[in-house]
Amino acid sequence: MALLHQLAISLCLVVAVSSQSSQDLESAKAKLKEYIAKKRADINPRYRPHYHIAPPVGWMNDPNGFSYYKGEYHMFYQFYPYNATTGPIHWGHSSSPNLVDWKELPTALLPDKEQCFSGSGVVDGDTLVLMYTAHEITNASAPIYNETQFLAMSTDGVNFKKYEGNPVLASAPNGSPDFRDPKVWKHENYWYVVLGSKTDDNKGRVLLYRSSDLKSWEYLSVIGASNGTMGYMWECPDFFELDGKFILLMSPQGLEAQGDRYKNTHQTGYIIGSFNYTTFEFVHEVEFQEIDFGHDFYASQTIDKDGKRYMVGWFGMWDVPYPEAVDGWVGTLTLIRELSLVGNRIIQKPVEAMTKLREQGKTGALPPNGYIEFDKTGEIIVNGTLNQKIELLIEGKQGGGKAWLKWDPEVGKVIVDRGSNDIRQVEWSPIGRHSWRIFLDASSLELFCGEGEVVFSSRVFPTGDWRVTNLSPQTLDVETYHLKKSITAMTNGSSCRDISFSLLVFTFMMILKQHFA
Ligand SMILES: *[C@@H]1O[C@H](CO)[C@@H](O)[C@H](O)[C@H]1NC(C)=O
Ligand SMILES: *[C@@H]1O[C@H](CO)[C@@H](O)[C@H](O)[C@H]1NC(C)=O
Ligand SMILES: *[C@@H]1O[C@H](CO)[C@@H](O)[C@H](O)[C@H]1NC(C)=O
Ligand SMILES: *[C@@H]1O[C@H](CO)[C@@H](O)[C@H](O)[C@H]1NC(C)=O
Ligand SMILES: *[C@@H]1O[C@H](CO)[C@@H](O)[C@H](O)[C@H]1NC(C)=O
Ligand SMILES: *[C@@H]1O[C@H](CO)[C@@H](O)[C@H](O)[C@H]1NC(C)=O
Ligand SMILES: *[C@@H]1O[C@H](CO)[C@@H](O)[C@H](O)[C@H]1NC(C)=O
């Protein structure tokens, strides 16, 4: 959660909102549901994702509370229903049996005196417990806000009640007002939480605490801190074991761009090291590196399930234009990715169940200047020789936003170029297969190189359906699919799939045209 964006709105909120009784809360929830049901009818669907989570209406940013409870995965997100910009923040909610098919659920947390900033979810016995940052306005002059940690509980995975004993963590050891984004996990007999914060002289850092009951917390250590060049605030920390090492994944703010690196407004990346649960010391072994090299990736969160580590990110960024805002909504989450550690690099693969969405598979040779047409979605696996250039132009059939995906063998870099010098690029040394796997949704592309050692997530806003043209000097082997819709909207009352979309799927035709130059 980036703070500056919240300030103006927060100042208004402090005047307008007083504490809600539970009756008021029920009626506020019912009104909100009604509002969403009415408002969604006005949304222009042109950029709406078909298989990525997005808010039904209004604004979304960070994913929150990623968890597995009573047989379903749960995904929450920072949500402001009443505008396509941020505002007094709620928690939106979806659930899924398989990390691919997502069903929208009622808004889980509504702001009261506090805004419900980012946090996480864990299962304690029969209860799904959310721990989040209560962001409150305290004073009209600096520091004008106070951040403490709150709990909210549910025994049905839909209705959440805020804990009466909130806050459970009232302040950072140094009293910093920036104290947010709790990520909780259990190890042996204790719960642990990492929190993003900063030193008195504005260097980002991550704090570690533990608790035996999620309510009373003991401060343990600082597991990572900026040395002065690594940012003024470290947001959305996550800390977990992966293939024998410990990973501190977080979103530092305030890194200076350095060549190809750190070109987004804020970054997300990780430090690899080893950790000792007796000394609470995290020894850094490999310093910070970005986890995703695209234009739009922030505030990632992971969970562990059956020995696998899954990650999701906000498929967005602060302070960038969102063409979908005029349509009444903003923001989406990335595909869920399974992580593993190979050497000094986390590799990412789209969750396996993504192949369930494939339809109308085709394989063939795509010669230079040949193109493939899709409707709003597509998956493309591309094989070519890395001795020569690869270049794919991804664009709307009727124009609009476009991107060039390139491999330049001279410099050994993969490049995602949105035109007008809006370029992200990074070195790629394949550790296994040499192919690319590309996911197109109505306004996004995700490029997974090789085994997932290099990944780019970038929003692109085409006019009309997609066209992908081979601008390489070489013929590429391609495998293509249409991807089915996997997001189920909540209607006023029940959940059901959008009928007009089913018709669209029914009539869908993917044409493979090959034009020899
Ligand atoms: C939603 O349902 C409620 C009662 O079930 C009804 O009063 C309201 O008019 C409905 N709203 C919309 C937008 O359909
Ligand atoms: C909605 O966002 C616009 C653009 O930022 C702003 O001018 C307006 O005040 C916002 N309205 C509400 C209700 O937040
Ligand atoms: C608000 O902040 C100002 C300046 O720091 C301080 O003088 C004042 O006492 C504060 N007011 C309250 C109600 O805390
Ligand atoms: C925030 O509020 C808590 C009480 O809820 C208080 O203990 C803490 O000192 C406050 N922190 C700041 C930075 O004002
Ligand atoms: C962790 O630290 C304790 C105390 O220094 C030490 O006894 C133990 O061997 C360490 N564990 C590991 C796995 O290094
Ligand atoms: C600070 O840390 C970064 C990343 O670990 C490193 O590249 C840089 O050299 C360090 N700077 C100083 C002044 O120590
Ligand atoms: C790409 O290459 C991999 C192995 O190198 C192979 O398994 C796959 O079938 C190829 N795909 C296409 C579309 O040629």
Automatic annotation (TrEMBL):
Entry protein name: Sucrose-6-phosphate hydrolase
The species this protein was found in: Loxostege sticticalis (Beet webworm moth)
Signal peptide segment: 1-19
Pfam families tied to this protein: Glyco_hydro_32C, Glyco_hydro_32N
Entry's EC annotation: 3.2.1.26
Top-level division of the source organism's lineage: Eukaryota
Recorded catalytic activity of this chain's protein: Hydrolysis of terminal non-reducing beta-D-fructofuranoside residues in beta-D-fructofuranosides
Keywords annotated in UniProt: Glycosidase, Hydrolase, Signal
Glycosyl hydrolase family 32 C-terminal domain ranges (all copies): 389-469
Domain Glycosyl hydrolase family 32 N-terminal: residue ranges: 52-350
Family membership noted in the UniProt record: Belongs to the glycosyl hydrolase 32 family.
Top EC class for this record: hydrolase
